[in-house]
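During the practical work, I worked with a single protein chain and the tokens that describe its fold, as given directly below.
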Amino acid sequence: MPEIFIIEEYAVTLLLIAIFVGILARRLRMPYTVGLVVVGVVLAILFKESQIDVGSDLILGIFVPPIVFEAAFHLPINDLRRNMTPILVLAIAGVLITTFLVGGIVAWGTDMPIQYAIVFGSIVAATDPVAVIALFKSLGVPKRLQVLLEGESLLNDGTAIVIFNIAVAAAVTSSFSLRDGIAEFIISAGVGISIGLVLGILASLVILRINDYSIETAVTFILAYGAFVLAESVHVSGVLAVVAAGLVNGNIGPRGMSPTTRIVVFNFWEFMSFIANSFVFLLIGLVADATLITNNWQYILWGILAALVSRLIVAYGLMLPFKSISNSWKHVIFWGGLRGAISLSLVLGISNTLEGGVGKQLLAMVFGLVLFTMLVQGTSMDFIIKKLKVVIPRQGRDEYDYVRALASSTRTSFVSLEKVQKQGMMSRHVWDVINNAVDPYTKKLTKDLRDMVKKYPQAEAEELDAAWREFLHRQRIVIGELLADKSINEEVYSELVGRIDNALQLPEISWDDIQDLENIFQKNTEEVES
């Protein structure tokens, strides 16, 4: 049988398994990705002689770009900007602390040389909370907490890979220059992000000039893989290039898309992410070598302990200055530091190249840690979230959202149809029939919505917060246009935009704030952060 058919057979079989796991996980109310890992481990034990050989390039080059791009594409840039400071602290300072602290603990507790222990620290520095984020969305965890974990994961993937390359080079050559390391980090991260930003803008400009959902979807597909390939070809961070490209294209591109195109593009990337995640987490289980893990159980325990200690310091120590992040949120950030695809791909890339059996030890330690975070932390997150009571109460919210969406869509459609009739493209008789049926129904929905607001004030407060932020964003755009038209000078522009940005940083906005606009614009950044 030709090799291409064998690959196709494996792919179809794995996808079929993923579908069954997805159905079962939904019924058992467990994280889908955790179920995939469990099934992968079971299959690896049952079919030991058919163990799949998975390379680093397969995961990093094929599966990681769509996962990263989809997450960045759907992450609102305004949410990311409002939380950029704690995210950068987690993604940069957190990765550095994890790398050296994990390396130090492992070297102290085992006989592994310090340079290779630091390599292990850099491998596991990147978090991958895919299972946790999926659970967050189903449980109704506060959006800001989701953004913190997802933003950290997106950015620390790239920073961890850069630090990993520096650590491996230092371990192999037995030499390290701090100045050269910092320079390499800045160049790799900076150039990678720049490539992603430029390609993301270009792709968005192309989408603005096209009205064909197939072509527009293809443009986003080329962007995701093209950004990665181009960045890697010039030896800079491909993952950060994909993150930047996804953020830019996801926040600019949809403005030029028709409603049909948006639906197609969003569904396409959700499907691509499903496929990539399915293969990655199945492969994590399939490539896990039980013998290798049992032979290195002491190293694995030290690796797990080191990872937990470093995550404890990152979650509680680094987040200490941010008063708006509660202790319960810090608990979730600590326990939600799962490891996955990035760690697996990095260790597979070097496990066969290091001398003295240290490569196999690193492989066992990473597999052990990934399995621990997925099977222990991933499965217990549901209980912890509910125990800490960080979930937004859904009572009434679904009912409120349903009525609001129905009222809004009905009213908008009714107004559009009225414009068609006024333009003479619909007979008066047909319009009267529709008007007599829809108008009373629209008024009833409006009354129902007012009743909902009285019944569930929290739901209205959340909608108010979102609407007010949209108002501020529109105001910021207009001020930018005034500056471009020379209607105001740079000093006035900076003053006004500064006030708006401070207002946007408020954790939440109340009716009292809106009724006292002068007060809300006078709140400075220090008050916001406290």
